[in-house]
Design goal:
The complex is a heterodimer of chains A (86) and B (107). Chain A has 86 residues and is α+β, with helices and mostly antiparallel strands. Chain A is built from four helices and three strands. Chain A has a three-stranded mixed sheet with strand order 1-2-3. In chain A, a hairpin with a 6-residue loop joins strand 1 and strand 2. Classes of the chains: A alpha+beta (86), B alpha+beta (107).
Chain lengths: 86, 107
């Protein structure tokens, strides 16, 4: 089990410029939905973007402290475009 | 990873145009994320094969290292790692997935 703040901190260690939204889906501290917006995603495909986030959470994921992670990644530009639709 | 395991994974991925490493099987997915992927591919109506990682511990651990991806399911199309459940959903919604599998099946 891990807190939403810890998830956010771990991602920000790897990606200091990231905007991170963490949602605990079950309240159990192991099923998370995370939205990450970072300029480090620019020029990368979706797989590489997700790999960046996964690697920042590597320890928590391999120990299964985080059991499930639904992930959405955006570049700042893509995020702006997505926000406008909503 | 042992060379034997790598070769097994190489062969599986090369021999199947659309391959899903998942928990459970098409008829009885054992995890919601694996189920998402099966439902999407069923909706597209394309032929695909699955590998049940729960039935093979070596593959369950090995595929995470092989793909540099810590979660199951994992989808391969035409020998290329495409992603997990989140990416499949996004690509399905944008229409990219349909395009990708059509190209793969025609090749």
């Amino acid at each position: 089990m891990i807190s939403p703040q810890q998830v956010e901190e771990m991602i920000k260690v790897a990606m200091p410029d990231a905007q991170v939204q963490v949602q605990d889906l079950t309240g159990g501290g192991d099923h998370y939905q995370v939205v990450v917006v970072s300029s480090q995603f620019e020029g990368k495909g979706r797989v590489q973007q997700h790999q960046l986030v996964y690697s920042s959470l590597n320890q928590a994921m391999s120990s299964e402290a985080i059991h499930a992670l639904a992930l959405k990644t955006y570049t700042p530009q893509a995020w702006q475009a997505a926000s406008q639709v909503v | 990873m042992t060379p034997e395991l790598k070769e097994r994974l190489d062969n599986l991925i090369q021999q199947n145009k659309i391959l899903v490493f998942m928990k459970g099987n098409k008829l009885m997915p054992q995890c919601g994320f694996s189920n998402n992927v099966v439902q999407i591919l069923n909706t597209l109506g394309v032929p695909f094969e699955t590998v049940d990682v729960l039935a093979d511990y070596e593959i369950r651990q090995g595929i995470k290292e092989y793909s540099n991806w810590p979660t199951i399911p994992q989808v391969y199309v035409n020998g290329q790692f495409v992603g997990g459940s989140d990416i499949l959903i996004e690509m399905y919604q944008s229409g990219e997935l349909q395009q990708m599998v059509e190209v793969a099946l025609a090749s």
